[in-house]
Each structure stands twice: as structure tokens, then as C-alpha cells.
Amino acid sequence: MTSNLGLIGLGTMGKSLARNIASRGFSLSLWNRTTEKINEFVDEFPDENFYAPQSFEDFVESIERPRRIILMVPAGDPTADLIKKLAPILDKDDAIMDGGNAIYKVTEIYQKQLEEKGIHLLGVGISGGEEGALKGPSIMPGGPVEAWEEFEEVLTKIAAEDFSGKACVSHMGKGGAGHYVKMVHNGIEYAEMQMLAEAYQMLKELYKLSHNEIADIFEKWSEGRMASYLTDISVDVLRKKEDGKELLDLILDKAKNKGTGVWTTQEALRLGVPSPTIAGAVFMRGFSNSLEERKKLDGLYPRLEQSPEMTLSEFTEHLEKALFATRLANFEQGFAILRAADKEMHYGLNFSEITRIWQGGCIIRSAILKDMNLAFSQKVQNLYFTEFAHTALVECQKSWKLIVNTAVKHSIPMLSISGGLSHFEASRRGRSSANFIQGLRDRFGSHTYERIDQEGSFHSEW
User: Which of 19, 27, 122, 321 counts the most CB atoms within 10 A of its CB?
Assistant: First the structure.
């Protein structure tokens, strides 16, 4: 048996991606740490061109030269162990594709190690979950051009389609560019989910709406400029019932994470890029995990109960505008991180291409990406300077402030929506309060300051 490619890792994503690849006419040799899963998977899909090898050596030998091997295993030790195992037995010009959620720094270390042996490593971000992996994900590959060229055909065939019908895949750049872009994608995703959760909480607590009634509102939003994958699936989550009970009422309010949102926030801090919407979403997941403490404090500090000051239709109109404005601010924060990283690491990122490949398959796909794609194709940097964003923010800012003010009045935490508003307000301030900060720094530590009326650094005897 000689297969076109090899794939290691038959978890949820690996199995879906294997089926996607096979459906495009490629033959695949499969491997998994638990070898029983290989035969079970092959037996489940007997019509696909899968090969179940007898050993790891058989797996490697069964792949046509130069070999192309896809890793679909968790980042960290599982990936490290496989690369360590593969490196001595692969040949020059063989190529490995790491499709896990790896941190870009580790990807770049592996790339350097393997390049010494003439083996190419492509670090690939894949977004779309199980369904996307099977039907067409958004794919973000980064690494040596030689590695991209080895996998370009198969990745182009299995990817989702953008708004124009083109494949949602493009070479992001050298080094760990692919995993870096996917990391920021996930940071944006965290904030998108959090802002929708904040909208859900306001509608549920202020207006005592049922989940079906909230679903009706989200469904209406999904038909307009708030159209997005996450808005759509929010309707499914809100309407889901189990044994006659609403599933949301049964789900514990503790949110998990796999690290990419934290990494994005850490990168923003490292690069000095303000990203309060994304960081707020990460922090809210942290709050969610302090369950027992939250329950005790809830009883210690009763919330002020007030009746809403607007009709439901008025409120939902303001809330939709606040959400759209937050989405704009959220994407700008994500792209600001990418701009800073590209400047430092010289990846060669193409922001127009990034907004194109995020139009299909990925979790953050939304209607707004069409406007952003056009803006970036015209070499715009900051989204706040674009005509479409200016029009929207001028229209939405009053509603944005009203929603944040309402949340404060009713004791509803709103780190993402309010963080987006703070980001916008701070970004458009011609003169900030940093002069006061500099005065304090010079007073307690003689750190000096600059002046608006003279050149140079100054220190005062306070």
C-alpha cells in the first residue's frame, strides 16, 4: 500500500479531517496512539481510501515520497513526542504539518530543529470545529514556502469557501505565522462569545425573557449586520431542550479554555497593544471558575433590583448597536496585535487575505469581514479610520454607552462590551490622562517626562 499522505491522531478533529481529505480523492495512511482506534475507524468507513498499518514503521513506509504527514494531536508533549519520533526516520524534503493549537514559539523551535535535517514543518491553524474539519475549515498555514507547496493542493481542496467561492486558505507567512494568526483568531473568538453572553444575561435578567424569546431576538439579529456563525449557533443553544427541560438551565456556569485566549492576552501585553475586550473575555472565564466564592459573595452583597427604563423593542435595538460596535472594536484589537507582531517578527502577514480566509469555515466568520477585507485591500491599517467603521460607530456610540450604563445600574458585569467602548474612547482621545501618570512617576521615582512646549527629557524638584 502506498498512500498520498499520512495522518496521525484520530481524535474528533483528526477523524473529521481524515474523512474530508479522503472525500477529495486522496489516499491516507492512519496512525493513532491507541491503535485499536485505527481499525475501528477504517472499518466504520470501508469505502474511503484509508490504510491501517501494522506498525509505526509500516505507517511511515506506506507514504509516497517525499512524505507528507499531518499531525492532529494535542499541542505540548504529544506533539513533541511525535516530532522526536519522526525526525530520525524521515528523509530530506519530507514535510510535516502540525494542525494542533500550538503556540507559535514552539512551532518555530521545531521548524529550526527539523530544517537542520532537511525536513519541512508547516504550522497550521485550523478553525471550524468538528463540522468545519469535515465539511471545510478555514486554514491558516505558516512556515517555509517548501512546506506550504507540499500541502497546498490538499489544503486548498479541503478548505471552506469565502464569500466569492475561493478556498479559505492562504500561506500566512514564515515561521510560526500560521499558529500566530490562529491564536489571535481564537482571542477574537473569546470576546465574540463573551459579548453575546453579556447580551444574553441582560435580556434574561432585566426583561425576564425565556430562552426561546431570547432566541427570537438573536435570530432577528442574524438576518442583519450582526450576521455571524456565533450569532446563528446561539439560537441553537438557546432553543435546545433535554427531557423537556431547557439545556442552558442545566449547564454549569464554569467556562473552560484551551489557552489560546490567554496566549493572545499575554502577547498583547508583551507587545504593548491594548486589548480590553479580549482580555475581559479571558478574565470572565476566570471569574466563572470561582463558583463557590461567587455564590458566597452573592449572598453577602445583594444586587440592586430595578425595573428596566425602556421597552424591550427599544432596548434590543440599542443592544444590537452596542454589539456591532463591540465587534468592530474587538476585530481592531485583534488586528492591532497582528500588526505589532508582524512588525517585530517580519512574518509578512497579509491582512486582506486573513479577512478573506476567515469568511468561511471558521468560528468567527461574519458579515463584517467583507467590509474589513475591502478596507485592508486598500492598505488601511487601523479599522477605526475606515469609512464603514466611522459610519457605524457614529451611529452606534450613543447606544453603546446606554447599554454599558444600564449594565452598571443593574449590577451586570460587562467586561467585553464595556472593554470595547473603553478601547474606542481611549483610541480617539487627542489628549489623555497620561500626563498625570508621568507627573506621578517623576515625583516618586525621578523617571523624567517630556513636554509639549520643549524638546528633551525633564525632571522636576517636587
Answer: 122
Classify residue 161 as left (phi > 0), alpha (psi -120 to 50) or beta.
Answer: beta
Could you say which of 150, 189, 198, 332 is catalytic?
189
DSSP secondary structure code for residue 390 in this structure:
H
Residue burial 259-270, b: 16+ Cβ < 10 Å; e: rest: ebbbbbbbbbee
Find the mean pLDDT for residues 355-378.
Answer: 96
Residue 135 catalytic? no
pLDDT tens digits, one per residue of 175-233: 999 999 999 999 999 999 999 999 999 999 999 999 999 999 999 999 999 999 999 99
15, 182, 198, 332: the active-site residue:
182
Whole-prediction pTM value? 0.95
Question: How far is 353 from 169, CA to CA, in rounded Å?
Answer: 9
CATH topology of domain 5-175: Rossmann fold (3.40.50)
Q: Which fold has domain 182-427?
A: N-(1-d-carboxylethyl)-l-norvaline Dehydrogenase; domain 2 (1.10.1040)
**Cα Dmax for the chain:** 83
